[in-house]
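note to self — DONT lose this again. spent like an hour looking for the file last time. sequence + predicted structure for the chain T wanted, 263 res
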Amino acid sequence: MTRHDKGLPVWFELVTADRPATGRFYESVMEWNVVDDPDPTHGGYQVAMAPDGEATAGLMTPTPGMPLPPGWRVYFGTDDVDRDAGRIAELGGRVEFGPMDIPDVGRFLVAVDPQGAGFILMRRTDGAAPTFDCGEQGRPGHGVWVELAAPDPDAAIDFYGALLGWSKQGAMPMGDMGEYAFVGWAEKDCPGAVMSSTLTGAPVRWNWYVQVPDIDAAVARATAGGGALVQGPDQIPGGSYSAALTDPEGNAFGLVGPRAEAA
């Protein structure tokens, strides 16, 4: 794992009841190519390949006793999973599964933060290609932003700051919905933001946003494929647009990209 992985999203994973149909939906929206994982020990896992040919996310079906509910999950990089397992408990969270090794992939654990949002920590195998691009000018089909909705945003920032090294890097006021607090490092405008689940009405969870070359075309493909537009597209700092959506099973995700006339 490179030094720059720590605290950054390193993988995204969807647990879905209808993996074939859901995979086709995301292939259309994100212009991914969803393929079977060639390793049979991974239990029928599928991998989403971005247009540049790099792996960017995984898809799997639920299994009995799975520690987190279905939906999208965010993996954050760390340099020591076992150390962080103890740190999570000290900070008021809990480890639901692991630490455990995945051969040729890395060592990981599944956890829940003190306010109930699930997340995964992973120390990836050395030399693994980056899957996440900081900021809005990312590669199409790759994650560029993550977002946490929590009842107490300040407490959430303190928890992840102590665990992953982030700090609050400013905020954008949202009126009656509180503020959109940016988190990361002074030298990096990423990985994302924290907002109030209480004031916005959003479920307590991590969400992620994927770069697309044309925001309106991608939103149109999503709604035509059975997804729903929740908000946007809204212009964001830098000139691109973001949109919040759900897939046909109701799983939340987001898109970021330019409008065709502004591309």
